[in-house]
Amino acid sequence: xxxxxxxxxxxxxxxVNRLGSDIPAGQGLTCPHCPYCGRNRxxxxxxxxxxxxxxxxxxxxxxxxxxxxxxxVEVGLAVAYxxxxxxxxxxVKLVFYCIYSxxxxxxxxxxxxxxxxxxxxxxxxxxxxxxAGLVVPGAKWWSVLIGGAIGFTFFLVAYFIGTxxxxxxxxxxxxxxxALLVGAITGFPLxxxxxxxxxxxxxxxxxxxxxxxxxxLRDPIPYGPFLIVGAIVTLLWGYPIAEWFLH
Length: 247
Known about the structure:
Elements lengths: L1 H21 L25 H6 L15 H20 L3 H23 L4 H17 L5 H26 L6 H14 L3 H22 L12 H23 L1
């Protein structure tokens, strides 16, 4: 079954790549096509990794290369789905964690490439987290609500402070919604750990970008990936990390 879930994650990665491109454009799901000339890709290029493996990772019409993002997403979700099956096995939690992985992958694409966290993704995801709080064994609905409230409130305050100090590009309103989602998924009290990890990772990477002058002090840096890293780490290893820190 590990192989089955790995293949499933690989196929879902192809779908995520399309959603990551179509959602910011305000389109419904389209057939894989070249973003430069608009021609539909042949069926054997619908998934990018095989095209890369046979060294034909370019548009058959105009020759434009297929972005490296496509095979990376496919491989990343294949690994994620396979790993989740290994650690969770057949369970309700497995279903929701696979859904969360898919949602996070879409949001990573849109935030890194467009600096956009679309509500059409986050709002349904928040509803899914609420359902998980009711049906996942061991989960508590009140934990989902408190976690979401903490994430939302913390980043709402950070948004106003960042805007006052660094200008309107410090944080986006989508980051507030994403923080609410992360809080709802991780729940209380793990939301605190997720936010702390996000802040530490964000500070470390932002410092590196500033020191290397890849970004300036007032250049926008997408914060969504840091929140997603905090959520993933907390979901998978939250309690062991908390126990290690406290002891």
